[in-house]
Model the fold of this input.
Amino acid sequence: MLNQEEKFEALVIALSEKGYAIMDYFINDDAVAQLVDCLLQHQINGTFKAAGIRKTAEQHLAPKIRGDQIVWLNAETGAVAEQAYLKLITAFQQYLNHTCYTGIIANELHYSCYHNNQFYKRHLDVFKTQTSRAYSIILYLNLNWQSADAGELVLYTKQEPNGIRIAPLAGRLVCFESADFEHEVLATTCQRYSITGWLLR
Ligand code: OGA
Ligand code: MN
Done:
């Protein structure tokens, strides 16, 4: 098992070589289970809201583009497990700044939940009016994920124009330069949980 600094270093090396990184066991199954408990509590409390798309005039089209529901993580009022994950991502952001002079100043993270048959069509995480997103960071929370559950992330790269299919396995972290990688979420056949976020310039 890598320690925290070794994980950060492995992520930084992959990011600098390829612009993206995939790491299994970024957090362990116990930490995943605690975040899933918090997520289920948000579902019980009714705090999940349908995710939007950036063009406000076209909000009614959002369900045809993305079907997930989200809850933002809060550094002040969040549960212990949520604050711990925010701290971990902030530590990674500081590591990136020290090693790569990336100039990240903040982060934002939300839970994302896709129900049966929901997806997020191919897209880029930055928009003409939204250039502060430097890195996208997705952590998957699906304990016992099976291939029939589907809902893979497809990451389109120059080397793999047909995309790399990434299963949303519990504890797996995917990180990429937000401006450079189009990606999509294939339709899921069961509830698909993750925490998606961005490091902001
Ligand atoms: C997003 C996104 C990918 C995933 O929320 O912008 O692309 O695998 N998520 O959940
Ligand atoms: Mn995205």
Summary: Residues 38 and 183 are 27 Å apart (CA to CA).
